[in-house]
Amino acid sequence: MCEGHRLDGCEEEDAESVRQAVERVKQQIRWDKYSGCFDCGLPQAVCTRYEVREDGGYIRARGGRCQYPGVLIRLVVAIWGARSKEVGAFFEDRIRQSGIEWKDRDERALIKWMGRKVRWAGMESNEMCRAVVGLYDMCGETETE
Questions:
Q1: Which of 68, 77, 113, 143 is 20 to 30 A from 41, alpha carbon to alpha carbon?
Q2: pTM for the structure as a whole
Q3: How far, in Å, are 13, 59, 102 from residue 9 at the CA level?
Q4: CA geometry: angle 120, 125, 126, nearest 5 deg
């Protein structure tokens, strides 16, 4: 089980393929405007790189730094690697619910969808961030230990 260490230092059997998948997603993801921090993907309301403007929107904070760079992408890819069949079906269902036909489980189409802006939980976010909550719920329901 991969606990107690980061993906970068992981020596598990499938770690390299997970690292490669993370790099593909990082290179391909294009976050919609205002869908979250461009470094971590989390909502601007959560990331310390942003501060609230007077009109209620967000602006980069002077000296603000993203506290979770790359974490969201690594999390999604690692969960998918661990439970590929279940997660593939999960994403297929989510994409279909958003009105998009996902042909042949096209990775590029999935990554594009993940960067889409959504209004969710009272804030602007993206599909990837929203999906993590669903994946967490799904993994909790199927846990056998």
A1: 143
A2: 0.84
A3: 12, 34, 34
A4: 105
What residues of the chain score a pLDDT lower than 50? 1, 144-145
Residues in the chain: 145
Phi, psi of 52 (to 5 degrees): -75, 135
Q: Looking up tokens 């593939």, which residue turns up? A: 88
Dihedral angle, C-alpha 107, 109, 114, 117, nearest 10 °: 170
Measured distance between the N- and C-terminal CA atoms of the chain, rounded to whole angstroms: 13
What is the predicted pLDDT for the residue at 4?
Answer: 63
Nearest to 98 by CA among 123, 76, 120, 80: 120
- The contacts of residue 129 (CB under 8 Å, 6+ apart) are 36, 41, 42, 43, 72, 120
Query: Domain segments of the chain: what residues?
Result: 14-142
